[in-house]
Amino acid sequence: MKLATLRTANGGTTAALATGADSYLTLPADDVGALLARPDWRNVVEEAAASKEQTIVAAADADLAPLLPRAGKVICCGLNYGDHIQEMGRELPEYPTLFAKYADTLVGAEDAVEVHGSGRVDWEAELAVVVGSELFRADEDQAREAIAGYTVANDVSMRDWQNRTLQWFQGKAWDGTTPVGPVMVTADEAGEHFDVRGYVNGELVQQGNTSTLVFGPAQLLSYISQFTALRPGDLVLTGTPGGVGMGMTPPRFLRDGDVLTTEIDGIGRLENQFRIHAPVAVPA
User: Fold this and answer.
1) Does this model's pTM top 0.85?
2) Among 34, 76, 142, 172, which residue's beta carbon has the most beta carbons within 10 A?
């Protein structure tokens, strides 16, 4: 099944089930994270699909909110594709390189992205994993079983801020700059490997397959769970393939008005226009 979070007319949100390419069925939960927090969430979806009491929203009228607007933890892995590691001039890591974001960073699949104060805005197309049950000190098999599903994300990065220090956090955790969605495809219906692509104004700039990840989804969840508990509705971004702007010669960054498209076959696509209120080039 494919689950989404939609904005409602009263300013709230609702979880929804995609019932095909043209409509969504609203569900009795505020968002996908709230739905997953219920142990019987699959039954909730099935009962709603069988009921005539839920609202149908045409896809053309759907206002896609961030998939997990109140995610308790958003944890990201950097340098996890071999080609991206090479373009950044680094060696294959022994352990995952991790950093965190807040739920405030997340935006919807079609939302405009406003950036104030960075002139080196870069793209990072990624597969993201949605946690479906609590994990703590889990092995890989347990972590695999805890994956609720997969979604699309773009870890938009402010390279001028990221490169100010050895810590990446300040270049990664900007409010309202990480598109996520449009849906979560449940693990039982998703494939094992995914083609990940990124485009700037329709030009293909990134392409990779998750079969080349250094640390796969279950490995990441297991590793993270050794030091912090993961709970339903938490989100883990798995890293980006080669083709980021900073790795180009000369480096290339997003400009005001550019459209960033992120897509993964079988899951969906993000399409976000950027409004960048800063000079294009600033000192590193």
Assistant:
1) yes
2) 76
